[in-house]
Every structure is written in C-alpha cells, then in structure tokens.
Amino acid sequence: DQHDFGLVGLGVMGRNFILNVADHGFSSMGLDTDPEKVSALKEEGANVRVDGTTDAAAFVAALATPRKIMLLVPAGKPVDAVIETLLPHLEQGDILIDGGNSYYADTERRITYLEGKGINFFGAGVSGGAKGARRGPSIMPGGSKDAYEHVRTIFEAASAKVNDEPCVAYMGRGSAGNYVKMVHNGIEYGLMQLISEIYDVAKKGIGYSNEKLADLFTEWNKGELQSFLVEITAEIFQKKDDLTGKHLVDVILDKAKQKGTGKWTSQNAMDLGIPVPTIDSAVTMREISALKDQRVAADKLYHTPSIGNDKPDAKTLGHALFFAYIVSYAQGMSQLAAADEEYNYGLDMETIAKIWRGGCIIRASLLEDIRKAYDKNPKLSNLLLDEDFIKTLKTIEGDARIVVQFAVASGIPVAGLSSAIAYFDAFRSGNLPLNLIQAQRDHFGSHTYERTDREGIFHTEW
Ligand code: 6PG
C-alpha cells in the first residue's frame, strides 16, 4: 500500500496540488518540516488517500518506486536544501520534480548534479495560483522524456482541461520547463502592466468610476479580450474593503512587488539578443512604482498636463489593449523560439500555446489563435508575420495609437502600451535609421559597416 505520489512543501500551493492529485485517485504523501501544515493536509484530505509526515526518511519509505516526488518550495536555496534532505533516502531511478519558479540555470545545475547519482531531476513550471493548483493548473514539465512518462498520467489527471485536452505536455530537454514558465511569467508581467495602463487612462483620463470599470472589463471578458487577467480585473473593481467600506483597489498602495521571474525573462532576452520591450517596461514600471517617496516629491515639483481633448471611447480602449496583448505574446513567443535554438530544448510552439489555453495566469481565448498560427507554420519566427494576426492588427493598430497619443498628451504613463506600438512600428519598418548608428560607430571607432549596394565590409576615413 505504498503511495503513488509524494509532495514536499505543504504551503497553500503544495497542499492544494497534493489534494488535487489525491482527488484523481492517486494515493499521495506529503512532507513538511512544519507539523501544523502536515495536520492541515490530513484534515483537509480526510476523504481521500492522502497522508503526511515531518520525517523525510518515513516520507521516502512510504512511496512506491520509482518514486515520484514533487517539490513545491520557494525557488533558490530551499530547493537545494530539500534535495540534500531527501538524497540519502533516494534510490537510482527515482524522480524529483521541481514545481516552483526556479531559475532555469539552477535547474541545469541540479540535473547534472543528480544525474551523477542516478536520480532524474526535472523542472516543471506550474501556473494558476492557489486555485489552479487545487482545481487544475497548467503544467510545463521539462527534463528526461523517459522519466516524464512515469508522472504523465498523474499530471494529465491533475491539470486543467480545455476541450477535454490536458493543459500539460512534455516541453523539452533540460531546463525547458522552467524556461517556458519563466517566459509565461514575463508575458504575465506585460499583460498586467497593460491592463493597469488602460485602467489609468480610463480612470484619470476619461473619468471612469470603479463600477463603470467593472462593467467595461466584464464586457471585454465576453469578447476577443477574454482572459483570466481581464476576468479577475472586473472582480477587483467590484470588491469593497472590509475596514473602510471603500473600493478595496483604491486603498491599495501603488507599489508592485516582484519575485524575479519577469526580470529574468528580460535579462535572458537581452542575453539572447531578442527584443521584448513590453516585458522590459513592465519590469521597469514595477521598479518605478517602488520609488514611492521620490514620485510623491516629484509630483509636487512638476506641473501635470491637463487632460487631452480627444478622449478615446470604450471600444478604442479595448482595441488598444487587444493590440498590446497580441504584441506581448508575440514578444514572449519569439523569445521562446530563440531560446529553443540557443539551448537546444526541442520546444514545440503549438504545444506551448495549447497548454496555456487553460489553468495558467495568462490563459486567454487569444491563445487558440496563437496555437493555430503555429499549427499552420511551426517555424513561424514572429506572430506578427502570421496572416490572420496581420489582418487583426491592421484593424486595431490605429486605435492603439489614439490611446497612446491621448495618454502622452495627458501625462498618463503608458510605458507598456507605447513600447508595444514602438516594437510594432520598428518591426514593420523595412528601413530603420540605424544606418546612422553604423556611420557613427565607424566614424569614432573604425567599427566598419556594410553597404546596401554591394557586398563586403567597409571603413571610411570620415
Ligand atoms: C503563476 C504565477 C505564479 C506567481 C507569480 C508572481 O503562473 O501561477 O506566475 O507563479 O504568482 O510568479 O510573480 P511576482 O511575485 O514576481 O509578481
């Protein structure tokens, strides 16, 4: 009567995920150093085959071989600490799955370290927050394909479903799972920033009340903008504060925290030489938000422009958001395609879009269109080159410009939206002014240049 599945780290995510697995008929065992968390699991799991312990040896001994052990502990040192705790008890062929937001290079290091001991280690991004973990997340596993076969049925059962298809699939070799999850979070940062800018334009620029904003986002969630983040945004505008009776959103401090995944996406995109400016600006805006004291001081020192005259209507706002949504996914997907080449992951872009359609934070009906684009052309270098997206973008780009113009004229910061337009405009410019940069480089540093009219490398004594 050994257990099918083990889970280390019985915080909210861990407890919810192990209960989800147990609900699907897999007998499960949890491990946590905190006895209260173990009791909480046993209580909540009273009706399913789930047990818990604070003892690592007992935990490992209770699992059927090859052992399938998932770690849901904070990224960084805690993951290494848990590995060291388990290691003396594990046997060749056992499988360790890191379900946290671990940095992909850490996963590579752990794979190599554990390979030497005969243990299969793999990183599996898990998205969907606490509710997703309980009712069905999107899962992005990467590592040894053979090892994945041992956990596949468990993950497929526990994951979200879209048209009966599980939102989990083998992503690729090595750290592919953590890498895909990292870029998922980069896109998440981008979409959240864009929504907050549209909120700012609608509220400060046009005078929308929270009630009207709730209606607007509710309406949007029925159309092309249908997505988890738009849906929860509508709910947020309706929520009243228990302490003051005011709208809760209005009493929340405007400093956004971050745990690193968005920043890593930007950093790694820079390393790959792939532009993801909308994700970059989302990270930058969280950094600017943290400078609250300086912002408040500067607010008094500068004159705020008066609100522009040409106020965009709701439809124009929606088009602008949809435009920038598409551009955000396009940037993230282009980064994944480049990372696939650089790290030899073996990613399949259509599969990624497919498993993101449900369960995860960036789930959106748009992902079905993205999936179709990669189904038509698996080697598509950028979504902006897909003929269906070209049609869509052509009809809404004008509205995105209207919103950016209005925001800039009114002094409302729209770093994400304007970066999306700038990226789009640069991407569709057959000629950019960077010939001048090459001339300058050659002028001051003899860095040479290429020509448009003949082959070769040239240098001029300017
Ligand atoms: C998810 C989320 C999850 C986490 C974010 C928050 O997919 O379920 O992405 O992993 O909530 O990483 O990130 P920040 O704290 O950096 O905003």
Automatic annotation (TrEMBL):
Its EC number is 1.1.1.44. Signal peptide: none annotated. Substrate binds at residues 101, 127-129, 184-185, 189, 259, 286, 441, 447. Residues 177-462 form the 6-phosphogluconate dehydrogenase C-terminal domain. The active site is at residues 181, 188. It holds the Pfam family 6PGD. Keywords: Gluconate utilization, NADP, Oxidoreductase, Pentose shunt. InterPro entries: 6-PGluconate_DH-like_C_sf (IPR008927), 6PGD_dom2 (IPR013328), 6PGDH_C (IPR006114), 6PGDH_Gnd/GntZ (IPR006113), 6PGDH_NADP-bd (IPR006115), NAD(P)-bd_dom_sf (IPR036291), Pgluconate_DH (IPR006183). PANTHER family: 6-PHOSPHOGLUCONATE DEHYDROGENASE (PTHR11811). Homodimer. Catalyzes the oxidative decarboxylation of 6-phosphogluconate to ribulose 5-phosphate and CO(2), with concomitant reduction of NADP to NADPH. This is 6-phosphogluconate dehydrogenase, decarboxylating.
